[in-house]
Amino acid sequence: MDVKLSKKGTTLVIKILEDMDHHSAQYLRQKLDNEIIKATVKNIIFDFSGVNFMDSSGIGVVVGRYNNIKKLNGRAAIVNANPKIMQIFEMSGVLKIIPAYAAVEDALSSMCG
């Protein structure tokens, strides 16, 4: 799976660069869990700019990592999701617990400001 991780302070930005299905979700889940454990991560931002398709496995990755970071008193956000992906998040109820923003900078401002 093509994903780029970067840190902005204590926030981990996860830029997903391909579609999320069962196989890619499993890889991403393991990678993120390891990163959250080894790093001093307080917040996570999921950047969906490279995602055109996502099934329920992708929703599971997002909600699962949200639950993990929430246990650490952290926050999560979704950014750069296209209308199709936003509709999936809306219909699944994810947007009731995880806010969505237009850009990484907007999410960072909300989390840190």
Automatic annotation (TrEMBL):
Q: Which Gene3D superfamilies match?
A: STAS domain
Question: What is a single molecular function from GO for this protein?
Answer: antisigma factor binding
UniProt-listed GO biological process terms? sporulation resulting in formation of a cellular spore
- InterPro entries associated with the record: Anti-sigma_ant, Anti-sigma_F_ant, STAS_dom, STAS_dom_sf
- Record-linked CDD domains: STAS_anti-anti-sigma_factors (cd07043)
Question: Among its keywords, does the record have Methyltransferase?
Answer: no
Key word Cell division present: no
Check the UniProt entry and state the signal peptide residues, or none: none
Domain (STAS) spans 1-111
Pfam families assigned to the protein according to its UniProt record, in alphabetical order: STAS
What keywords appear on the UniProt entry?
A: Phosphoprotein, Sporulation
Write out the function statement from the record: In the phosphorylated form it could act as an anti-anti-sigma factor that counteracts SpoIIAB and thus releases sigma f from inhibition.
**PANTHER family per record:** ANTI-SIGMA FACTOR ANTAGONIST TM_1081-RELATED (PTHR33495:SF2), ANTI-SIGMA FACTOR ANTAGONIST TM_1081-RELATED-RELATED (PTHR33495)
Its family remark reads: Belongs to the anti-sigma-factor antagonist family.
UniProt protein name: Anti-sigma F factor antagonist
- Lineage summary: Bacteria, Bacillati, Bacillota, Clostridia, Eubacteriales
